[in-house]
C-alpha cells in the first residue's frame, strides 16, 4: 500500500496509529515536503500543532527503522508565494498532486480536502479527527465546592480563590512551588483535553496564549515569551442563581418584559455580575424571548436554548452584523470594556435589540460614565436606560436613566435650561445624579451631598462653577485669582490690581462675555477688598499662581488672521486652535471671545454688534489677531 498523508492527519497522529493497528502495515508512506514546511512554520510560531506534527514524523521514522513501513519525503518545498496562498488551498493542491503522480492513497482528516480529492478522481482514505473520552483534567484536583479559580505558575506555590461571592480569599493550596516540567505537563493536558473531548474546544490560540473552554472551566494557558513563565489560570462558576433569588426581582422582571431595554450590569471583579447576567438570560428565554450572547471568551453558563457567539473573524462588529440577521429579542454582551465594545453595544441597541451589557465599575454611576465620550451624550438614555450595580452577589443599586429639558440642579436662571440626563434610584424614585453639558464640558453632578464626603463645604455644582470661573479668569489675568461664590448665580472674583482692566475689558465687554457663557453674575474686585485674602481659602489655590492672561490692550499680540466677509458671516480662519476658546482683538484691543470650530474657524453673523465692530476694524485695516 502506498499512502500520501496531508498536514491534518499528520498533526492528529493518525498515520502512526493506522500503522500500529495494522491498517497501514508495511505501507510506503510518502510525506510531502509541503507538509514538513507547514509544520516547521507552525512550530516556529509557537503553535502546538506544529510540534505535534513534528512528533508524529519522529514516530514514523522510528517505525521505518523497525522495518514496519517504508518512509520517504517527496516533492519540493513550497515557495514563499505558495506559502502566502496557503489559505487559498495552494499547499493542499501541491499535496494532492503528489498523491496523483504516485497513484497513491490520499490520507486526510480534513473533510474539505477529502471531497476535493474525490472530485479529482483520487483514492481517498478519510480518517475522522481524533476524539477520546476525556475524564478529568489534572488541575481539577485543585478545585473544591468553594473554589472559583486556581492560579498556577512555574516556580510558585499554587494558589486559589475560595469562598462565597464577595468574600473570596486568595490562598495557597500547596506546600511546594511547581517546577517547569510539571507545569508543561499540566498545560499540555489542558490543551489536549480540549482538542480531544467533545466537551471542550480552544477559544483562542495565539503564540504564547491559549484560552480553553472545557466543560464548566475556562482555562488560560500562557507561555514565554508572552509571559515570563508557564502560567495556568482556571476559572469555574461556583454559583448559579435565578432572578427570583435577588432583591427587587419583581420590579426588574416587569421592567425587562415591558419592552426591549438597554441594561448595564456593573460591579467590581468577582462581585457576581456574570452570575446575574446568566440569571437574566435564563429568565428572558423562559418568557418567550429569543436570547443570544456575545462573549470573548465564552464562559457564561446558560442552557442549550441560548446560542453563545464569540468574535466573528476576531471582531465583535461582525458578530453584531450576523446577530441582526438572527433577530434576537435580547443579547447578553459579556464584557463591554473597550470603545469598540461600547460602539457595538450602542449600534445594536439603537437597531431595536434589547441589550444586557456586563461592565466593570467600582460605583453604580461609573457604568454610565464609561459611555460618556464614547457615544453622543443625548443618546445615552436610548442606549442604556437601566443600570444595575451588583455587590457581594446581591443587587445593590438600580438606576433609571432618562432625558429631560430643565434647568440643572443648583442653577436658577431660566435661560440656562438644557437637555439633562436624570439618573434616578429605581427603588426610591429619588434623583441621584444629573449629567449635562456645562460650558462645553460634560459634567456629572451628584445630587446627594454625601457623595462629596464628610465636611464638604461646597456642593458638586458649586465646585464645578468655581472651577469654570477660575479657569476663565485665569485665561485673562496674569496674577493670583481667588473665586468666592455668593449664591448659586453670583460670584466675586478677586484679582491683582494690575489685572482689573484686562479682566473687565473695554466697556466691560470681556467680563460680560464670561458672564454670558457661564450664566453667573461676576463682580470683579482687587485682593485688597477680599476679607479672606491670605487665609489659604479660595478656589482650591493656596499660593498665588500665574494666570496666563492675554494682553491688556494697545499692542497687537497673538496669531494674525485675515477675516473673510461673506453675504451672511464674517469668517475668521484660525489654525491650530480647534475647539479652543480664544479672544479676538483688533489692533490689540479686545473685541469678543469665541470658540473655534472643529473646522478651524470662527463665524460671526453679519448685522450683530460684534460683526459691525469687527467689520469697522477691517475697513480701517487694523490688524486682527486671535489670542489663545
From TrEMBL:
<dbReference type="InterPro" id="IPR052041">
    <property type="entry name" value="Nucleic_acid_metab_PIN/TRAM"/>
</dbReference>
<feature type="compositionally biased region" description="Gly residues">
    <location>
        <begin position="534"/>
        <end position="556"/>
    </location>
</feature>
<protein>
    <submittedName>
        <fullName>PINc/VapC family ATPase</fullName>
    </submittedName>
</protein>
<feature type="region of interest" description="Disordered">
    <location>
        <begin position="526"/>
        <end position="560"/>
    </location>
</feature>
<dbReference type="InterPro" id="IPR002716">
    <property type="entry name" value="PIN_dom"/>
</dbReference>
<dbReference type="Pfam" id="PF01850">
    <property type="entry name" value="PIN"/>
</dbReference>
<feature type="domain" description="PIN">
    <location>
        <begin position="1"/>
        <end position="115"/>
    </location>
</feature>
<dbReference type="Pfam" id="PF00437">
    <property type="entry name" value="T2SSE"/>
</dbReference>
<dbReference type="GO" id="GO:0003723">
    <property type="term" value="F:RNA binding"/>
</dbReference>
<dbReference type="InterPro" id="IPR003593">
    <property type="entry name" value="AAA+_ATPase"/>
</dbReference>
<dbReference type="InterPro" id="IPR001482">
    <property type="entry name" value="T2SS/T4SS_dom"/>
</dbReference>
<dbReference type="InterPro" id="IPR029060">
    <property type="entry name" value="PIN-like_dom_sf"/>
</dbReference>
<keyword id="KW-0694">RNA-binding</keyword>
<comment type="similarity">
    <text>In the N-terminal section; belongs to the PINc/VapC protein family.</text>
</comment>
<dbReference type="InterPro" id="IPR027417">
    <property type="entry name" value="P-loop_NTPase"/>
</dbReference>
<dbReference type="InterPro" id="IPR009019">
    <property type="entry name" value="KH_sf_prok-type"/>
</dbReference>
<feature type="domain" description="AAA+ ATPase">
    <location>
        <begin position="259"/>
        <end position="384"/>
    </location>
</feature>
